[in-house]
Amino acid sequence: MITDAQRFQPFSDEPIRLIDEGGAWLAPFSCDLDDDTLIGLYRHMVLGRMVDERLVRLQRLGKSSFVAPSSGHEAAQVGIAGAVRVGSDWIFPYYRDTALALAVGWPLVDMLGQMMGTRADPARARQMPAHPGSRALNMFTVASPIASHVPVAVGTAIAQKLAGAGDATVCTFGDGATSEGDWHAGLNFAGAQGAPIVFACENNRYAISVDLQHQTGSPNVAAKAHAYGMPGYLVDGMDVLASYLVMRDVMAAARDGLGPALVELTVYRYGPHSSADDDGVYRASEEVAAWRERDPIPRYRRFLEGRKLWGDAREDELRAALKAEIDAAVKASEAAGPVPVEWMFDDVLSRPTPQLERQRERFRAARRAAGEDVEG
Ligand SMILES: Cc1ncc(C[n+]2csc(CCOP(=O)(O)OP(=O)(O)O)c2C)c(N)n1
Hints:
- This protein has two domains: 336 residues, Rossmann fold; 37 residues, no CATH class.
- The chain is built from twelve helices and seven strands.
- The strands form two sheets. The protein has a five-stranded parallel sheet with strand order 1-2-3-7-6, with helices on both faces. It has a two-stranded antiparallel sheet with strand order 4-5.
- Helix 2 packs across helix 3.
- Thiamine diphosphate binds next to strand 2 and strand 4.
């Protein structure tokens, strides 16, 4: 019998895969997930894809100022999300984690509010779009400077270890983040302290236009874990079952006091780096098309169909239900209305200084004089 400890080997040369491109199960052990869990993973992947496609359209319509497309990352993100014990573990995501944020339970309307900068945004439109955060979910607000969240995530994990409640932290980032000093400082400290943290690298091969070969001399990202005294797992991040089961096992090991791990999930981003990027100048459309053939969603659908868990009728039903959910969330976010500009004076200081109050009054007066509606 294969035990959990033997199931996945760190530092493999080939990515760990559990299903092939045709959706056939590859592993020498059986899949221990129940049907609801298997279908739930699929639902979250399709939700992530449909929301991403809508966010791209909303940005083109001028309803959002920025988007970081996540299509292609769904299997990795849904796998990572499935390994989190929401509410007790901590999550330190990065800007491309749309499917992850939704899969851990971030409400769609909060996401749409954040993307569109409306009053539906719990963060009151203080962040640029694609920067989720949620107190209720222990989801740390995304930070724009690459890898700056890594040392903070490690500090959180060390606090969890000291508290002794058996919780863990997961911290995600792209391959480009592994070139930052903050990344190395964080991994070094986590290794030295035996912090209960899993570093999950969504390696999509590009940091904007810089490809992985120009980023590192290492054979892969997982190999870097050697230097920090932790296991490094190379995983096919377009295989949701491999992503989920590896992440589930290493998060459980971290909670059990076995220390940190680095998991590299190999993915491909189908869209440009962001709405401000033209990917046609650094990669060929044939390359994107070849990766489209390996889309993680149809691949996993084929696995479900092989188990008689899925078919055309269920697919149509799911997509219609998700479309209705997304439409309703877009409507609710828009109906909430734009945030008043005056809000920029709130929450900066617990007691505003007289200077700040004077600035607020001058600002209000100027807006009233211009015939604008001013709150308060
Ligand atoms: C410290 C810092 N340097 C540069 C940037 C500009 N920048 C934004 S995203 C990005 C690429 C990051 O690539 P990667 O970590 O691979 O993640 P991906 O976007 O590919 O998912 C860069 C260089 C930044 N935000 N912060």
